[in-house]
Amino acid sequence: xxxxxxxxxxxxxxxxxxxxxxxxxxxxxxxxxxxxxxxxxxxxxxxxxxxxxxxxxxxxxxxxxxxxxxxxxxxxxxxxxxxxxxxxxxxxxxxxxxxxxxxxxxxxxxxxxxxxxxxxxxxxxxxxxxxxxxxxxxxxxxxxxxxx
Length: 148
What we know:
Number of helices: 3
CATH superfamily: Hypothetical Protein Pfu-838710-001
């Protein structure tokens, strides 16, 4: 089960360069249900996500690089490219700050995953977070992949 809140970010934290980051690209073979392929640095995977906004089922399966590139030609919509910074927060929570590239730039989103819905609902975002878009499907990456 993935339990996640998502926020728009309009101003980046000043010390962003101090945090580890990963280069991610992902494409969608299907958006209903969500079936995604992803390259996360040198790790490749196929993901299925159920319907839902804050909470939904998620299953990840490993892919080899060759299978990823084979499936890449079959994606529907745009290939999403982003840099993801991993920023530690209170209570062993990690903020995943995504800075989107190409046609989705200058979009910046912060995603925070939680162990349960109670923790997610009681989370107080840092001041640099903007609008809470958790309950808007518009900011799911699967939806962003379909924008022109």
